[in-house]
Amino acid sequence: MGERKRLSADRRKEENKSIAFAKLLNIPTSPRKMRLVADMIRGKEVFRALGMLKFSNKEAAARLEKLVRSAVANWEEKNDRKAQDGELYISTIYVNCAPMLKRLRTAPQGRGYRIRKRANHVTVIVDTIENKHITEA
Predict the structure, then answer these.
(1) In contact, 22 and 71? CB cutoff 8 Å
(2) What is the pLDDT of residues 96-115, one digit of tens each?
(3) pTM for the whole thing?
């Protein structure tokens, strides 16, 4: 690895030490279905978002609820205190495509239809509301 790449990688690692985030990789649902749930909670206060996920009837909501709880626990660990009601919000959440599993399904007349089993990666970043007002001003 060259000097320039190492310096930028070290800078990125230092920035990641100050933010609280959680990642969930290779979730076996399509990214489109996961984005529907992610859009529902983007920018919301954390405990309100957890309530929305708990009572959502989508399968992806249960996995996302667990991920948000993990991000809150990471924030509590980094700041050495408990998260209070109304203090944290979901600053960033994004869903990326994961590698696709390609399978064949038998079809009439000796043919085969391709089945694409999609998966996704989700990243959630939580932050305090005080930092939100500072960055927007």
Answers:
(1) yes
(2) 999 999 999 999 999 999 99
(3) 0.84
